[in-house]
Design a protein that fits this description.
The chain has 14 helices and 17 strands. It is of the alpha/beta class and 516 residues long.
């Protein structure tokens, strides 16, 4: 509103005419300033609160700061995606999740990149939607999740082959570890064998990418996020916090020194912040919650969440190892592996599998045996799943992460009491419980039992009829009436005699007289 004594302008008038001509006149009279002056705040001023996806528990309100977050988002965008003026950058993540914040909004825009935004499913109207967008808009850098890659893999190679993807020069993976099979398909089918892949590791809590190859600098290995970025001191430690030096020996993934974009606290619950991320090793370093191992070249391999590592008969197995083996089978599109208590082995391997094509029905024992033998061949006999359950899909958050805590409850037959507010498709839980599969065998079993009961009943009835007919045939002819009456009288006399005898037995003995 204008100050006292100032003349009212059309902008301040509540009844201003906003027809197109009036708006044009207003813009001419009050032109837009070429510079939008920012609001200057302290570097540690909270920039935003973002709740975690809920894949590992109740969502946590992560607080990020202004200066550090913006700095690392911009720098990692420039380093990892090697952005140039002519690039069209497309990160397929929902802008509401941290990947969308860091690599759809803040990072690319701060770096002055041309960004493609798409709101919709990757399979609508068909499974070629991503590749059509890449062709239509000339996408050069494409960044998506392994979940999306595996979902599109099962649709075949014909769909992406229909589109011109020649402008793509760099591919990226984000969200969870990518299995080697999906990595190779991504590079061969989408990248046409010429695009490097940057497999990135980071979290909502880290704010920006911490471990990733640099295109043109780092040699890549399918399934490995390679090495930490400059300035990031990542390590793998054992239960006592000592660094694990032996190649391929697993441990806790930790970050030893602070980094600019790290979370500052959990909103409204700083005690939970300290307990979750710092208490494990006496606040010496940040505990990511992931297990990992380093190979002989110093490359990091993420094995999954720490609580997802299975202890099978004394052997520590990463769920990622078994999942990768399953997905490498030609018939499997996706897999998720969890542990289930076992009386002898401690933990049993329980696998949920999504096949390429329709979910199998009826007797699946042959396919289950085939997959178990395949895992034994790829990883070892100790890793063979004790149980495999087939589904149309896996329970995922809206950011595409598999909610393994729900799968654990399903595998153990427990009631699901955890927070499922971030679950994309709650209806999938009934299918995963095996309700449909269980009802069919149950019906079949009931039919079999009923049939089994009917057969003995029919046999018994026939036997009874035969016995009755035999008695009828063996029955003597009736005697004359005189003879029958005499027999009846004898019968009656016999009964009377028996009654008299019983009465005599029951009568007490007479007491002896007291007289002498």
């Amino acid at each position: 509103m204008p100050l006292e004594g100032e003349e009212k302008t059309p902008v301040d008038n509540d009844c201003v005419d906003l027809t197109p001509f009036a708006r044009e006149d207003m813009l001419l009279e009050f032109p837009q300033h070429p510079v939008c002056e920012p609001e200057w705040v302290d570097a540690e001023h909270p920039l935003f609160l973002l709740y975690t996806s809920g894949s590992t528990g109740k969502p946590k309100g992560i607080q990020h700061s202004t200066g550090g977050y913006l700095l690392q988002s911009k720098v990692t965008t420039q380093w990892i995606f090697d952005l140039r003026d002519e690039d069209v950058f497309w990160c397929t993540a929902d802008v509401g999740w941290v990947t969308g914040h860091s690599y759809v909004a803040y990072g690319p825009l701060a770096a002055g990149a041309t960004v493609l935004l798409y709101e919709g499913a990757p399979t609508f109207p068909d499974g070629g939607r991503f590749w059509k967008n890449c062709e239509s808009h000339g996408v050069t850098v494409f960044y998506t999740a392994p979940t999306a890659i595996r979902a599109l893999m099962k649709l075949g190679e014909e769909l992406p082959a229909k589109y011109d993807l020649s402008k793509l020069r760099l591919l990226g993976s984000v969200g969870e570890p990518i299995n080697p099979e999906a990595w190779i398909w991504y590079q061969r089918v989408i990248g046409r064998g010429r695009c490097p892949i940057v497999d990135t590791w980071w979290q909502t809590e880290t704010g920006a990418i911490l471990i990733s190859p640099l295109p043109g600098v780092t040699a890549t290995k399918p399934g490995s996020c390679t090495q930490p970025l400059p300035g990031i001191e990542a390590d793998i430690v054992d239960d006592h916090g000592a660094s694990v030096k032996r190649p391929d020996a697993g441990g806790y993934l930790v970050i030893r020194r602070p980094w600019p974009a790290m979370l500052r606290t959990i909103w409204g619950d700083n005690e939970r912040y300290l307990e979750t991320y710092w208490s494990k090793f006496d606040r010496r370093f940040y505990v990511a919650g992931d297990s990992a191992h380093r190979d002989k070249d110093g490359y990091f391999w993420i094995m999954g969440r720490i609580d997802d590592v299975l202890n099978v008969a004394g052997h520590r197995l990463g769920t990622m190892e078994v999942e990768s083996a399953l997905v490498s089978h030609p018939k499997v599109a996706e897999a998720a592996v969890v542990g289930k208590p076992h009386e002898i082995k401690g933990e049993a391997v329980f696998a949920f599998v999504v096949l390429r094509g329709a979910r199998p029905t009826g007797d699946t024992s042959a396919l289950v045996k085939q997959l178990r033998d395949w895992v034994a061949e790829q990883v070892g006999a100790i890793a063979k799943p004790d149980e495999i359950r087939f589904a149309d899909n896996l329970p995922k958050t809206r950011s595409g992460k598999i909610m393994r805590r729900l799968l654990k409850s399903v595998a153990r037959g427990e009631e699901i009491t955890q927070d499922v507010s971030t679950l994309e498709n709650p209806a999938i839980l009934e299918q995963l419980r095996g309700s449909e599969a269980a009802r069919a065998p149950a019906r079949q079993a009931r039919t079999t039992v009923a049939a089994g009961r009917k057969r003995p009943a029919r046999k018994a009835a026939k036997k009874a009829a035969r016995r009755k007919a035999a008695r009828k045939r063996a029955r003597p002819r009736l005697k004359p009436a005189k003879v029958r009456r005499a027999a009846a009288r004898r019968k009656v006399r016999g009964k009377m005699a028996r009654k008299v005898t019983r009465r005599a037995v029951r009568r007490p003995a007479r007491r002896p007289s007291r007289r002498r």
